[in-house]
Design brief:
The chain is an alpha+beta fold and 251 residues long. It has two domains: 30 residues; 218 residues, Acetoacetate decarboxylase-like, CATH 2.40.400. Helices cover 21% and strands 48% of the residues. The protein has four helices and eleven strands, in the order αβαβββαββββαβββ. Strands 1, 2, 3, 4, 5, 6, 7, 8, 9, 10 and 11 form an eleven-stranded mixed β-sheet that branches.
């Protein structure tokens, strides 16, 4: 009996040491260390639908915007987190006077980031296929599930038309850094808890940004499909990131 107790104590010590090491490494170097993706912001054309997609107590922001991206997380930590792909559609919102983002959908390619993200409140699911491929003049991202195309982003380098004042402001902004709060319901989409999550930089990032135009197509059966017309062309960016970042719920 004494040997069993000693063995259990040793196991607990080892497990504790491993967890401490992992937490220490995360706090110093972060979870997301290298990724690339395509990203854009677009003004919704259906404001009634936009309002209906912001559940109480979330409120309309000063300037409604839809954020859309497809990304390939090349280097993530710790194991069993391994390289995976992800996409997301988020809405600008306001809560307690503070503006941020509310994520409506976030498909991923693997179960571990799916489980971890849903624990924080992200409405994740494991999609049949998410691709982010380089084309001759840019990049293309797609999400497919059950034979349906849920999202398609076609990014072409360079500006193909004159930009509006709002579009020029976006291209000069730093919205792609995703430093604003993210408001999530836990469990996802249901609550009752509403949690604020922040993306914290743990290592000074190196970012390479390439500007261009993005063609957006949202699957016609998606609840948010009517936010923007299929085939909408809008300014966007291709982003390469190296550094360290982690998602944290501020206390």
């Amino acid at each position: 009996m004494r040997k069993v107790i000693i063995s259990l104590v040793l196991v607990l010590i080892v497990v504790g040491a491993v967890l401490f090491s992992v937490n220490s490494e995360l706090s110093k170097r972060g979870m997301f260390r290298q990724f690339h993706g395509i990203y854009t912001l677009v003004k919704p054309t259906n404001m009634e639908l936009y309002r209906s997609l912001l559940p109480a107590p979330l409120e309309m922001p000063e300037r409604p915007l839809v954020s859309i991206f497809t990304v390939d997380y090349v280097k993530v930590y710790p194991w069993p987190m391994t390289r995976y792909q992800e996409a997301a559609i988020s809405l600008r919102c306001k809560y307690n006077g503070e503006e941020g983002w509310h994520v409506k959908t976030m498909p991923v390619t693997k179960w571990v980031p799916n489980w971890g993200g849903r624990h924080l409140g992200f409405p994740k699911y494991v999609a049949d296929e998410i691709t982010l491929q380089e084309t001759g003049q840019g990049w293309k991202g797609e999400v497919k599930q059950a034979g349906e195309n849920k999202l398609s982003l076609d990014f072409t380098l360079g500006n193909m038309r004159g930009l509006t004042a709002d579009e020029k402001a976006f291209m000069k902004s730093e919205a792609f850094k995703m430093e604003d709060p993210i408001f999530l319901f836990v469990p996802p989409d249901k609550g009752p808890t509403l949690q604020k999550v922040m993306l914290k930089q743990t290592v000074d990032p190196q970012r390479i940004i390439k500007q261009g135009m993005m063609k957006i197509t949202i699957g016609s059966k998606e609840p948010w499909a009517g936010l923007v017309p299929a085939g909408t062309m809008i300014p966007g960016i291709f982003l390469e990131y190296k550094g360290g970042a982690i998602l944290v719920p501020p206390k």
